[in-house]
Amino acid sequence: MEPFSVNPKDAVDVNHAVNRLAAHAGLRGLRFIVGIGHLAPKQGGLIELQTDQEEVYIEVATAAGAFGPSLLAVLAHEISHKVLFDRRIRQDDNDPLRYEILTDVTAVYLGFGKLLLNGYEYQTTRHDFAAGAIEKRRLRFGYVTIDEVAFIHAMASRMREVPASDWLRGLSPFARRAMNRVVADEAVRQHLDTAPTLVPQRTYHRPPSPPRAAHQTAPRAASRQPVSGMAGSAGAGPGRPKTSSQGMSPEVRRLRDRLLVLVYGDERLATRLVAFERSRQDTLVASYEAAIARLIRDRS
């Protein structure tokens, strides 16, 4: 996929961008909801992973969501999590770091290599003419360095017989320098020269859901363990709120009514937002309060 621009402050533009990435990865038919807010330190994004879900909630850290390239890189990583989850690839991996690195490799394999190169690690420059100073700041997200992304991108391109002249098209100057630095290494060139050839794959189809007995229901929750860094998984396990107000305390009912107003009466969306918060909050009241606060903060 060639890089494209996105305005992080335009919700419609962000929605178009995430669905464009999802369609490229074969995740058509799903509704992606993107929120930008505060996450744990060194955490760029979170995604809600469930079986048979029709809506997928992705949260991007404020720092990563402030710039278009980093926002696209985070979304590409999170969508790759969904691809691995749907295909049940290494879901039992007990090493979160290894699984996150696998997700980065998957993102490049799916065709998001240039997006990661432009957004995973980049340098910003600010000129203070009054003080006569130049401030340079390097931002980095993800689990691999930009040189490692460049190597994986070069290998995937060579294996798919993408012309070398296309490897650098659309890259930022910072990413372009990384690519040139990596492919100039003699050891890297030996790997590229001996890389096997893969059949070019334009689209990636989502696998069908496994057959279920009529009396069974699919498991609803994905792994709920927190994963620091670029992405984590948050499911809506046993604490998933009820769609009906029956059995709710007055406080929960009041918060639920307020949340429904904020989402224009969309009960399914309200339920998913609270379920997403439930994995990190101790009580249902706190989950509703967090979901409301997040919506208000994102819209402001």
Question: What would you say this structure looks like, in words?
Answer:
This protein has 300 residues and is an alpha+beta fold. It folds into 2 domains: 11-193, no CATH class; 250-299, no CATH class. 44% of the residues lie in helices and 11% in strands. The strands form 2 sheets. It has a 3-stranded mixed beta sheet with strand order 1-3-2, sandwiched between helices. It has a two-stranded antiparallel sheet with strand order 4-5. A hairpin with a 7-residue loop joins strand 2 (45-47) and strand 3.
Helix and strand run: HEEEHHEEHHHHHH
Uncertain stretches: 212-244
DSSP helix fraction: 40-55%
Gyration radius (Cα, Å) is 21 Å
Q: How many extended strands?
A: 5
Tell me the domain tally.
2
Q: What is the count of DSSP helices, taking H or I runs of 4+ residues?
A: 9
Spatial sequence of strands, sheet with the most strands? 1-3-2
Would you tell me the structural class of the helices and strands?
alpha+beta
- Taking the alpha carbons of the first and last residues, their distance comes to 32 Å
> Mind summarizing the main beta sheet?
3 strands, mixed
Q: How large a portion of the residues is in β-strands, by DSSP E?
A: 5-15%
Oligomeric state of shown chains:
single chain
Mean pLDDT: 78
Name the shape in a single word.
globular
